[in-house]
Design brief:
Elements (H helix, E strand, L loop, with lengths): L3 E8 L3 E8 L7 E10 L2 H10 L4 E2 L3 E9 L11 E4 L9 H4 L23 E5 L3 E3 L5 H4 L2 H14 L7 E4 L3 H12 L5 E5 L4 H9 L3 E4 L25 E6 L6 H5 L2 E9 L14 H6 L3 E4 L8 H9 L5 H4 E6 L3 H10 L6 E5 L9
Parallel strand pairs: 9-10, 9-12, 10-11, 12-13, 13-14, 15-16
Antiparallel strand pairs: 1-2, 1-4, 3-5, 3-7, 3-16, 5-6, 6-8
Helix pairs in contact: 4-5, 4-9, 5-6
Length: 357
């Protein structure tokens, strides 16, 4: 095996370097993974846009092959196809011992590595390395964001027959539509900020109706249900709202929540727009709930792998572009500039420079 590899680094705004760097050396309890596919996440875009003040490695939606296993590793073997959890729990803190592993991020992870997912190889701890079978690497790279979408559905406590509004039709929102359909939702509505491919894909994923909020406000859309009870009358309402858009949309989305409904969100914003206000009395008298989903540590990988094998997601519709490592900068710009049509964009570090689609 060669002693060097290619790895990408980013610096704001949207500067990308692919460098030749030393191959990571395996140590006890860790595994050298050849990266076959790595998805671009919205947090990667934020890093490239403003956050990376100096050159940093990035990429965390990773699928690959275990090529070398360190001493003491028992659950992963050389040649295994693997996906990497982006965060793990420690097992020993009070939260873990009380059965709340979802509240612990103290387990070993790959975030401190000199290179990450946008590289030919990455070093990963055994605790974060999950073997899989029966999926392509491109499909498997969807597991980490699918876990985020599943956490959002769990947070919202979707019940069979609930009418659902999904606001924001990026990959997480589109996955949430597909999960809601399979989990027994009633009528599903998808709302996005721009017309284009993301709206169309919402229908493919299982939404009954989709609309562009520039043409039809979330609060004015004619949802089929009337609010069932409460002091504040509303002509049209939904039982669950799932927000994967920036949080400034939350106050308006609360207006269409049915009596006793739940709004769950994962949208992130920075600066003044991270602050929101809404009528607490209306919220109170509607018996509404506002819940934050934060899928860290990364959980539910076995469930999500099975969902992918069973065809819960139309992955061919969700993956819109695949690029080699050398075109990572182009891929980031595509996602930044064409948010209506670019969906899940994957990097394949083992592709040649002219490859991709």
């Amino acid at each position: 095996m060669a002693q060097t590899m290619r790895a990408a680094f980013v610096k704001a705004p949207f500067q990308v370097q692919v460098r030749e760097v030393p191959l990571p050396q395996v140590r006890p309890g860790w595994i050298l993974v050849r990266v076959e596919a790595c998805g671009i996440c919205g947090t990667d875009l934020h890093l490239a846009r403003t956050e990376a003040k100096d050159w940093v490695p990035f990429g965390h939606e990773i699928a690959g092959v275990a090529v070398e296993v360190g001493p003491g590793v028992t659950t992963v073997h050389e040649g295994d196809h693997v996906v990497l959890e982006s965060g793990t729990f420690c097992r020993y803190c009070d939260a873990c011992r009380d059965g709340r592993v979802d509240l612990c991020n103290n387990g070993p992870n790959f975030w401190g590595n000199p290179t990450m997912g946008f590289a030919e190889y990455i070093l990963a701890p055994e605790e974060a390395t999950v073997p899989f079978e029966g999926l392509s690497f491109e499909q498997a790279a969807l597991v980490e964001p699918l876990g985020v979408a599943l956490d959002l559905l769990y947070t919202a406590e979707l019940r069979p027959g609930n009418d659902v509004l999904v606001v924001g039709l990026g990959p997480i929102g589109l996955m949430a539509i597909a999960l809601a359909r399979r989990m027994g939702a009633g009528r599903i509505y998808g709302a996005h900020s721009r017309p284009g491919r993301r709206l169309e894909t919402g229908l493919i994923m299982g939404a009954d109706e989709v609309f562009c909020v520039r043409e039809q406000a979330v609060s004015a859309y004619p949802y089929r249900k009337r609010r069932t009870a409460g002091v504040t009358h509303r002509e049209h309402a939904v039982d669950r709202v799932l927000v994967t858009a920036p949080p400034h949309v939350i106050p308006e989305a609360l207006e269409v929540l049915n009596y006793g409904g739940i709004l769950a969100f994962i949208g992130i914003e920075y600066g003044p727009r991270a602050q929101i206000t809404f009528d607490a009395n209306a919220f109170h008298f509607n018996k509404a709930q506002l819940r934050a989903s934060f899928a860290s540590p990364a959980l539910y990988f076995p469930t999500c792998l099975q969902m992918l094998r069973d065809g819960w997601l139309k992955t061919e519709a969700l993956i819109s572009h695949v690029f080699p490592l050398e075109r990572l900068g182009e891929a980031l710009q595509l996602l930044q500039e064409d948010r209506a049509n670019a969906l899940k964009v994957l990097i394949r570090p083992q592709l040649t420079e002219g490859g991709g689609r």
